[in-house]
Amino acid sequence: MEIKIVEQKSLLKNEDIKWYLLDEQLWATKLQQYSEIEHSIENSIGSFNWLYDVNDTVLFNKFNHSLETVIINLSGKTSVDYAENSNIRYKNNKIKGNIFLYDASYMNYEFRGKVVYSVSQDCLYAFQKEKGTNIIFLFVTDDFGFVVEDGQLEGWILKNACQHLYLEDEKITNINKKALAKYLNAIEMLDNDNSEGFERTVMEMDLYDDSFGKKLKDLLVDMQ
Question: How many Å from the N-terminal Cα to the C-terminal Cα in the chain?
């Protein structure tokens, strides 16, 4: 997806970023319900998933082409990085601003690459770290941004990911990141039909006796 970067204030703010753990989706939008997003399609351009379920939703205003809504599918894509020094090098080429769609049309678009949750950095992202040196990290809010290379949208990044975590419509606080990582491991095993690994990981959730860890275990047990 070809985009233009403009160093101006984005429509979106940090409170518009929501990581829906159960739905396995990341939302960046002012809108609250999917029905509202469906109604916005007629005044939008960009990518949406009506025709092709694999598409991510990346919608721009039809009239000024500025970014308005992003819904990223995380299902079957998320893995965990436990490295203590998970080196995501974005600070030296980070800017704040907004993106505009270059080609005013509808298209099929999906963010490529594995989605990774870094426990040490509390960062959720999807981009190829081995790409070239001319990558720009364009943050449209303090925590959420896009990876852009040569004018092409190549990925995304969410800092302070746990601060944006929701179970259904409830924002979650006091999050145990290790319990969250174990939960994500279990979901990955379920997606890969690794029933033995899934059941073992569910049992390991007993290590986390805080309310958040117990809630995640209950969710996993319901999936068995």
Answer: 39
Q: At what angle do helices 211-223 and 195-204 cross, to 10 degrees?
A: 160
User: Is 100:159 a contact under the CB 8 Å cutoff?
Assistant: no
Q: In this structure, which amino acid lies at residue 57? A: T
100 DSSP β-pair partners: 4, 66
154 and 166 Cβ atoms separated by less than 8 Å: no
- The whole-number pLDDT of residue 50 equals 62
Residue bearing tokens 């303090």: 142
- Centroid of chain to Cα 219: 21
pTM beyond 0.85, yes or no: yes
Provide mean pLDDT across the span 194-221.
Answer: 91
- What is the band of 91 on the pLDDT scale with cuts at 50, 70, 90? low
| Residue in 94, 97, 125 with CA at minimum distance from that of residue 112 | 125
Q: Which residue matches tokens 């601060």?
A: 163
